[in-house]
Amino acid sequence: MMAARIDPRTKIVLVLCLTSMVLVVENLAFVVGIGIISIVCALLLGVEVLMLIKRYRRILILILTLSIVQSVFTPDTEVLFEILGIPLLTAKGIAMGVKTFVRMLVILTSGIIMSTSNYRETIQGLIQWKVPYKIAFMTALSLRFIPIFTEEFQDSMVALQLKGVDFTKVPFGKKTQIYVYLITPIILSSLKHAEEIAIAMESRAFGAYPNRVEYLVLKLKGYDYGVMIAAFLLSIIYVWAALII
After folding, report:
1. Given this model, what pLDDT does residue 147 score?
2. Which tens digit of pLDDT belongs to each residue from 144-192?
3. Would you state the pLDDT for residue 4?
């Protein structure tokens, strides 16, 4: 599999380029293009997109809901839809909602791309880039929280369905409130997991010695350098084109 052959540092460069572009670019067409590029990169790295869509569909619904809210509450002179003189949808609002959706989708896709690498290899790659071990460990650990966050959200949704809540019959306004209420326990649960991990690290004397010995040593290959250089150069060209158009 291609994802297994590519060095995790190459994926880090690719993810940094994607997330940097999607945050810097403001042109709507170019932002959507970055979203398409991120999905193509995930496909080339062997990610099963259909399986991931099924797995992360709840989060995608949440992202879409937040994007719609963003579009509703963004004022603009070009009103597309209003009720009793109150503008609900504007051209600028829809553009902002689409950009918000694509940006969050790119960030989620970037986490999925990084998850194709072994957890230990990701840490080792950062260490060989002279990143302090503690920072490298925290960075890799944060990537592991993405599936945990997803699982917690899905469990909360199943719990509500078992209590008789039918989301297909819930009005849009109440459905948005339900999603907001679900975020708080999920965040608290994530903080609990982080506290348990911190206790486990302290019990094993994490960081007690200034130097560490690595058994695993990664080596960048020719195609790794090629992918990193191409990603960097294409990112610069893409941002430059988005700024001048």
Report:
1. 67
2. 676 677 777 777 777 777 777 676 676 766 766 777 777 777 777 777 8
3. 53
Sheet strands (E) in the chain: 79-83, 86-90
Contact 111, 98 (CB under 8 A): no
C-alpha separations of 212 from 97, 208, 217, 219, 229 in Å: 47, 10, 13, 19, 30
**Separation of alpha carbons 18 and 157, rounded Å:** 31
Q: Which helix (H) or strand (E) holds 151?
A: helix 133-162
CA distance 136 to 128: 10
Polymer length in residues for the chain = 245
**Count H helices, E strands: the chain?**
10, 2
Global confidence as pTM: 0.67
The confidence score (pLDDT) of residue 17 equals 92
Sequence-distant (6+) residues with CB within 8 A of 154 are 58
* CA 192 to chain CA mean position, Å: 21
Asked whether 7 and 224 are in contact (CB, 8 A), the reply is: yes
Kindly state the tokens that stand for 176. Answer: 């948005």
